[in-house]
Write a structure and sequence with these properties.
Order of helices and strands: EHHHEHH
Distance between the termini: 31 Å
Number of strands: 2
Shape: elongated
Strand content: under 5%
Mean pLDDT: 83
Number of helices: 5
Largest sheet: 2 strands, antiparallel
Radius of gyration: 18 Å
Helix content: 55-70%
Strand order of the largest sheet: 1-2
Low-confidence stretches: none
Number of domains: 1
Length: 126
Amino acid sequence: MAGGTPSLIEPAALMQRIVGEIAACRGILSRIEHVVHDLLPTPGQLHPVAVAPRTIQTGLQDIDLLDQVLDDLSRCLAALSGDASLVSAAAVDGARLLAPLGLHDLRQRLRGEDAAGTHTEKIHLF
């Protein structure tokens, strides 16, 4: 909030951003899939190809990121669905609605502050 004025978001724009975030989750899942694929032996191999520990760490971080993004999106959708007046409103208080979300970059993207951003959160595993 700037100067006490609520940061208003149009529900339709918020829904479009949520759709974009869910679509971006497919990219995270694809990265995870590639790491898992590299960990498995191919037909005819007894052992998988050696995978760099950094690659495995990145895959684990992507799993954690995917979990956090989906959890935050679920919270946001639950808040919207829990109050029918929010969906039919011309605008909603974005600061209040998005405050419970754990990922700062995601809150910014859903507010439209960095709509072209990618999932760049620094994840702290477990």
